[in-house]
């Protein structure tokens, strides 16, 4: 596994966990992660995250 693949898998798991904790409220999740909501949407698309995981 490459470093990028590992980083992506960890980041995906972390975002999914936070989304689940916050009932898939993307705005609140972005706020708790200290990122812009639009950036989180782009990251979710890049990592293949959609509602229902």
Automatic annotation (TrEMBL):
It comes from the Bacteria. Pfam families: HTH_8 (PF02954). Residues 8-45 form the DNA binding HTH domain. InterPro entries: Homeodomain-like_sf, HTH_Fis. One of its GO terms (molecular function) is sequence-specific DNA binding. This is DNA binding HTH domain-containing protein.
